[in-house]
Amino acid sequence: MGSWKYGGCLSCLLIPLALWSIIVNILLYFPNGQTFYASSNKLTSYVWYFEGLCFSGVMMLIVAAVLLVLDNDNRYKCCQSENCSKKYMKLLSVIFSAFGIAVSGYCLVISALGLVQGPYCRTQDGWHYAFEGTAGRFLTNSSIWSRCLEPAHVVEWNVILFSILITLSGLQVIICLIRVVIHLSKILCGTYSVIIQVTDTHSSLCTSSTLLLLLKIQ
User: Fold this and answer.
1) For residues 87 and 187, is the Cβ–Cβ distance under 8 A?
2) Are 28 and 47 in contact (CB under 8 A)?
3) pTM to 2 decimals?
4) Whole-number pLDDT of residue 32
5) Signed CA dihedral, 79, 91, 108, 46: sign only
6) Percentage of the chain exceeding pLDDT 70
7) Nearest to residue 144, comparing CAs of 123, 171, 120, 162?
8) 170, 3, 175, 10: which is closest to 98 by C-alpha?
9) Which of 62, 87, 111, 176 is exposed most, by the fewest CB atoms within 10 A?
10) 123: which strand partners?
């Protein structure tokens, strides 16, 4: 029961993180709340990878739901042996947690690339990526952000939202990684304890047989 509560808490944490990822990703499509730039395809290319909407959002919600079901191993049994059932559930939990690391890691990488690339905006030279050749150095020099004339304050908009996505997906990676470590250790330690028990039983049988043989000889 205690392990279910602990695992369930970790899984429940993924749900608000996924919901916030969806919200933040949607906001990236509407700089300053305007729909014109999305309809005319005047947004940074990385927002169209749906990193927060599909991967760190919808897919992570599915992962969280499955993990919550798997954590409640008191209700679901996949084989006759209770130990077998628990190990099978833990193995599935490791697999889905690893999948969670993959989808949230994708969001983390794409968001970081979008942050470094900078926004697609209108400057005095027209529409282009004003900071593409700076390798992210523009992030520490806010005095050049004014190069982007339209959308207004688009640099701040992208920096804040992509940074939030990086934080949310990073937390998802950490939570899923913790789950993988915990359940792998339980699986491996459980297998080790079974081996020890079998070895101890075999040693006891050998000792008993030796004693009986000595008694017969005497």
Assistant:
1) yes
2) yes
3) 0.81
4) 86
5) negative
6) 77
7) 123
8) 175
9) 62
10) 126
Mean pLDDT, residues 45-59 taken together: 95
Which residue in 107, 90, 212, 99 sits closest to 170, CA to CA?
A: 107
Cβ-proximal residues to 61 (8 Å cutoff; 6+ apart), any chain: 14, 15, 18, 19
Q: Which of 71, 52, 51, 67 is nearest to 99 (CA)?
A: 67
Per the omega criterion (within 30 degrees of 0), is the bond before 151 cis?
yes
Do β-strands 120-123 and 126-129 pair in parallel, antiparallel, or remain unpaired? antiparallel
Residue 207 pLDDT class (50, 70, 90 cuts): low
Q: Rounded to an integer, what distance in angstroms lies between the CA atom of residue 21 and that of residue 214?
A: 73
Torsion of CA 203, 204, 205, 210, to 10 degrees: 90
**Is residue 121 pLDDT above 80, yes or no?**
yes
Chain length of the chain: 218
Helix (H) or strand (E) holding 68: helix 60-71
Task: Read off the pLDDT of each residue in 21-30 and give the average, rounded to a whole number.
Answer: 96
Q: What angle do CA 38, 49, 140 make, to 5 degrees?
A: 80
Q: Are 26 and 64 spatial neighbours (Cβ–Cβ below 8 Å)?
A: no
Burial class (CB in 10 A: 0-12, 13-18, 19+), 54: middle
Q: Left if phi > 0, otherwise alpha if psi is -120 to 50, otherwise beta: which for 148?
A: beta
